[in-house]
């Protein structure tokens, strides 16, 4: 299974509540993105639970624009939030992005995971090299989340 997900963890000196507050505001996601792929969030409000969606304008590795609708599939206040992206008017292909927050003595252990173990579309798998984002870019996203949470 290790070849079907990538997880990165970092300890940050802010509370889980402050980190969660940043993650549940889709309008902040472009600022948080360490990959440079997110361009604009089309989300009128904060995420408040599973089953919600929020749209993001993206740019692929070649610079081509596209849009995704992120389906929130896990939500536990101050502990976990996860979503599965999909093209508009299509179901998620099976990639899950999860943020897990664990309180520590000095703040929060933030774990970001990209899990593609649910992807079953052979065409998608043939066209994409997964994960599409490196561990370094995921670490940069965690760094950006922590910086915004400190504000």
Automatic annotation (TrEMBL):
Ranges for domain Activator of Hsp90 ATPase homologue 1/2-like C-terminal: 14-117
Transmembrane segments: none
SUPFAM superfamilies: Bet v1-like
InterPro entries xrefs: ASHA1/2-like_C, START-like_dom_sf
One Pfam family from the record: AHSA1
Family to which the UniProt record says this protein belongs: Belongs to the AHA1 family.
Official protein name in the record: SRPBCC domain-containing protein
Organism: Gordonia rubripertincta
Lineage of the species this protein comes from: Bacteria, Bacillati, Actinomycetota, Actinomycetes, Mycobacteriales
């Amino acid at each position: 299974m290790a070849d079907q997900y990538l997880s990165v963890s970092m300890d940050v000196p802010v509370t889980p509540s402050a980190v969660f507050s940043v993650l549940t505001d889709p309008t902040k996601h472009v600022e948080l993105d360490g990959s440079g792929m997110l361009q604009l969030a089309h989300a009128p409000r904060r995420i408040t639970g599973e089953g919600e969606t929020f749209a993001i304008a993206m740019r692929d590795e070649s610079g081509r624009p596209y849009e995704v609708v992120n389906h929130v599939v896990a939500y536990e206040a101050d502990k976990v939030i996860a979503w599965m992206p999909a093209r508009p008017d299509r179901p998620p292909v099976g990639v899950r992005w999860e943020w897990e927050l664990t309180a520590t003595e000095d703040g929060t252990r933030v774990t970001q995971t990209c899990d593609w173990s649910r992807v079953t579309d052979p065409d998608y798998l043939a066209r994409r090299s997964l994960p599409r984002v490196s561990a370094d870019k995921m670490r940069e996203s965690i760094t950006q989340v922590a910086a915004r949470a400190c504000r």
